Amino acid sequence: AQKVTQAQTEISVVEKEDVTLDCVYETRDTTYYLFWYKQPPSGELVFLIRRNSFDEQNEISGRYSWNFQKSTSSFNFTITASQVVDSAVYFCALSETVYNDMRFGAGTRLTVKP
Amino acid sequence: EAGVTQFPSHSVIEKGQTVTLRCDPISGHDNLYWYRRVMGKEIKFLLHFVKESKQDESGMPNNRFLAERTGGTYSTLKVQPAELEDSGVYFCASSQDTGIRELPKNEQFFGPGTRLTVL
């Protein structure tokens, strides 16, 4: 069965601190996709990244970086030099080839204080 | 290009009443998905349409929920009668078809959600 676990329910940091959001997944499929979405206070889900199971290269996009480790079934998300605008709920999700629905984690609420 | 839109943005109803949520996918997207987030828990899949056909409705919680997508364009999700535990945010998403069976569908674009409160 596929499952996504985000163990951190809430994280609070001070602006300019680095913060890492953890994501651990379970799947029996060998081909799958992992996602991160951001849900700001306005409520919409904003797509951040999609990685497939065959590409373990870490990715960096500005202040955002992702660390995909198949050996530990983790896909962690790091924000460097956090800003107040980063405050949101962040969701990790998994999609397999056979099942087209996405399985989401419970989300991590990040609060960045000035 | 317009994104996925959902209507209404908020709905407050009493237990036992009926509510209908609407989702307009991105034009040209054959795949339409409904998800919901209840009581601050994880976002859970409800069902998936390919055009007007229900591809997977394994996530629908019970028969009080009815989803339709007549004509393969917009979709409605009706809750009748609504119960307290139905309160939450209902998200709709759409994606293009990759046309390749072995690959997951393309990236899903999410709408802003409808916040449903059942009193």
Give a description of the structure.
The complex is a heterodimer of chains A (114) and B (119). Chain A is mainly β and 114 residues long. Chain A has one domain: Sandwich (Immunoglobulin-like), CATH 2.60.40. In chain A, strands 2, 5, 6, 10, 11 and 12 form a 6-stranded mixed sheet that branches. A 4-stranded antiparallel sheet of chain A has the order 3-9-8-7, with no helix packed on it. Chain A has a two-stranded antiparallel ribbon with strand order 1-4. Chain A is globular and about 45 Å long. The mean pLDDT of chain A is 90. In chain B, strands 2, 4, 5, 6, 9, 10 and 11 form a 7-stranded mixed sheet that branches. Chain B has a 4-stranded antiparallel sheet with strand order 1-3-8-7, with no helix packed on it. Classes of the chains: A mainly beta (114), B mainly beta (119).
Write the SSE topology.
The complex is a heterodimer of chains A (114) and B (119).
Chain A (H helix, E strand, L loop, with lengths): L2 E3 L4 E5 L4 E3 L2 E3 L5 E8 L6 E7 L6 E3 L2 E6 L4 E6 L8 E9 L5 E3 L3 E6 L1
Chain B lengths: L4 E3 L2 E4 L5 E6 L6 E7 L5 E8 L2 E4 L8 E4 L6 E5 L8 E8 L13 E2 L3 E5 L1
Parallel strand pairs in B: 2-11
Antiparallel strand pairs in B: 1-3, 3-8, 4-5, 4-9, 5-6, 7-8, 9-10, 9-11
Name a few traits of the molecule.
heterodimer; A: 114 residues; mainly beta; Immunoglobulin-like; four-stranded antiparallel beta sheet; B: mainly beta
